[in-house]
Specification:
Layout (H helix, E strand, L loop, with lengths): L2 H17 L19 E7 L2 H9 L4 E9 L8 H5 L6 E8 L6 H9 L9 E2 L2 E2 L5 E5 L2 H17 L9 E4 L3 E3 L7 H4 L1 H11 L1 H9 L6
Parallel strand pairs: 6-7
Antiparallel strand pairs: 1-3, 1-6, 2-3, 2-8, 4-5
Helix pairs in contact: 1-7, 4-5
Length: about 210
Amino acid sequence: MSRFMSSVRRGAVALLLLGAAGAASAQSPAASAPAGATAIATFAGGCFWCVESDFDKLPGVLSTTSGYTGGKVANPSYEQVSSKTTGHAESVEIAYDPKRVSYEQLLTHFWHSIDPTTKDRQFCDVGSPYRTAIFVHGAAQRRAAEASLAELQKTKPFKEPIVTQIVDAGPFYPAEAYHQDYYKKNPVRYHYYRSACGRDARLEQLWGALAGQ
């Protein structure tokens, strides 16, 4: 992350920490999703504020939870993950209704919401916590993810190779309460961060009209 954008995000987090002092970490909404047939998908696409926002607008998505996965420390804090020493990625756990939206549709939406060609970075955020990854829950999701990646490599050749990882899902730890639904709670700060970070400009450059779709 650039020094300027790093200070922007640290400042936003510091303000939220003041308001959330002593608050417990949020329980994953996925754990209390509406009864019925639901499924879980987990994606890492850089800043989890943005990934939450991108998936919440998709019909069939029941809930999204910002959190940390892929690391070696149990119940890490935001500060620990940001230190780039725990191995976690900022990620989002998605509870969805497979009768309304398929896992394949979620994959397509994920690709069109990230830059899959940058290693350990998304837009202005730099470091392993901002890597892109598909954390698969079982063999069926792995097959679908690998097929989606193969199709993308065939139909959308980039100048750089696709570096997004496909890995088995492990423990997922919900992020602190002040991170959940950040884009709803702090819309001005969120939109400033997203715009200044260049996320949408880069997505349009990569995907054109498909960006965010």
